[in-house]
Amino acid sequence: MISSSMPFPPVSWWRQASSAQHITFDLAEHYQKMSYRNRYYLAAPAGKMLMSLPLEKGRNQRIPVQEVRLSERDVWQDNHWKTIVSLYGRAPFFEHFSHQLEPLFRQPFALLHDFNKAGIILVTQLLKLPLIFDETRQFIERYPDDITDLRHGLRPQQPAAVPEYYQVFADRTGFQSDCSILDLLFCEGPYAAVWLRQE
Fold first, then answer.
1. DSSP states along the chain
2. Which of 8, 27, 65, 123 has a CA between 20 and 30 Å from the CA of residue 55?
3. Is the pTM of the predicted complex or chain greater than 0.85?
4. Which residues of 102-116 are buried (b: 16+ CB within 10 A; e: fewer)?
């Protein structure tokens, strides 16, 4: 499977990654605005909440993803963690995982991909998923048909339909489909690994 680099990808990405088991991140592709490459979505009382990672030169840059730098002027990591605590502090498995996730939001990261990769690897470890990650620094526009290409298939504006699971605010908003893996992790805990593989 070939994929863009994303922070805490949506659960639809993880379902495909769990099937593929070998995921290659395309670091040579140009950064694309309005995509998952620097954003993730959390379930909130008023609907899905966008969490955006601020970039050093804004979102209109046409450079390879491997060169995209995170803004050092914003305290985005602290703000993101406070929002996560506010939304998921009462989720069934928040306390089970929060002490392992919080350091990721305290550690400085210069490059967007470095933060994205660290988050993906950490979630993989927390869920004990047998995934293998690789990176390519050579852009290939089209891959053979037997390789799943998710670089353009996942769009925040068109969230994928996924099987329902428990969500903190479902009684107010109904099920919010295809949120970040953090939502599934805090709500379903270790069972999330089984949920990802169900039909």
1. -EE---SS-BHHHHHHHHHH-EEEEESSSBP-TTSGGGEEEEEETTEEEEEE--BTT-S---SBGGG-BB-SSS-HHHHHHHHHHHHHTTSTTHHHHHHHHGGGGTS--SBHHHHHHHHHHHHHHHTT---EEEEE-S--S---TTS-B-TTT-BTTBPPP------TTHHHH---TT-BHHHHHHHHGGGHHHHHH--
2. 123
3. yes
4. eebbeeebebbbbbb
Average pLDDT, stretch 49-66? Answer: 84
CA pair distance 74, 68, nearest whole angstrom: 16
Whether the per-residue pLDDT at 176 is higher than 80: the answer is yes
Which whole number is the average pLDDT over 169-198? 95
CA–CA separation, 154 vs 186, rounded Å?
A: 22
Token code pair at residue 104: 């990721």
What is the rounded CA–CA span in Å between residue 10 and residue 57?
25
Tokens of 3: 């994929």
In angstroms, the CA 92 to CA 185 distance is 10
Query: Which pairs count as long-range contacts for 116-123, CB under 8 Å and 24+ apart, including other chains?
Result: 116/5, 116/6, 116/7, 116/37, 117/5, 117/25, 119/7, 119/8, 120/6, 120/8, 120/9, 123/8, 123/14, 123/181, 123/182, 123/185
